[in-house]
Amino acid sequence: DEHKMAPTDTNVIVHPLVLLSVVDHFNRTQSDKRKTANKRAVGVLLGSWKGNVLDVANSFAVPFEEDEKNPDVYFLDHDFLEAMFAMFRKVNARERIIGWYHTGPKLRRGDENINEVLKRFVPNPILVIVDVNPKEFGLPVSAYVCVEEVHDDGTPTTKTFEHVPSEMGAEEAEEVGVEHLLRDIKDIGASGTLTDKIQTQQKSLEGLREHIQDIHDYLGLVIEGKLRINHKIAYLLQNVFNLIPNIEASEHVSSMIVKTSDQLLIIYLGSLVRATIALHNLIDNQIDNQTIEEQNETKKAEEQEKEEKEKEKEEKEKDKDGSDKSDIKADEKKK
What we know:
Shape: elongated
Helix content: 40-55%
Number of strands: 10
Number of helices: 7
Largest sheet: 8 strands, mixed
Strand order of the largest sheet: 9-8-7-6-2-3-1-10
């Protein structure tokens, strides 16, 4: 079925295991070369078709080298690829070669040549580019398919990569594993700290703002006549606008007031509790200081009393010595 399907109608779903494998591949092979050359990691994608959805569930690395100055000069280990795929087939026969990946982070001139090699295993290979060092918030994955572009002037057709929709997807077991992995990396516990939640919400809002800006730019180009209108996109935008709540409705206003009042009440109670705890700590601190002062005064009094007793004892010993000496002198005179 996938051989008859138009490649541009495909929706690519990438699993977390693939991203982890690609990042590990890049760190093992190219991390030490990033400062000296613009290297990239290349590998093969495994998965299956489900209707018009391409499920990318697994991947493996392939030895790859290329000449930076001449993209037509490259080395891709075919024997290694076939041997690895044969071993993967023994583990899961339903997973087949569906395309390839590289760590771009963008398309390169030599991608068409590598794509032709993958056509030995699949008629329409999917190219997934993974940005292992993303600088902007968003999905670090983009999917492409190679298509032939026909020119109206009769010139020979050229091959170019066309973008296809891609998204992240995971099964229940993968979601649990990713959750534990993130928990170990960030050390955020079961629910996460308030700082982590705020940072996550901030990143989500930044991503939403970028998407709204893209929609604004697209509609502006359509209005200016620089782009033809795409009715599918217009239909999706209309659905988005229909889902936006009416913030002027009385029910929405009352709900917002109730929600805001509840949040303010929680903040007020939290402030009261914090002030009470601070006052309690202050009183405990004063009590501790008084206890310490009393102990110090008692210790000083005991030391003074001890010193006075020692002085009295020394004086008594001196008096006793003086009386003994006087008795000895009296005896000597008598003799």
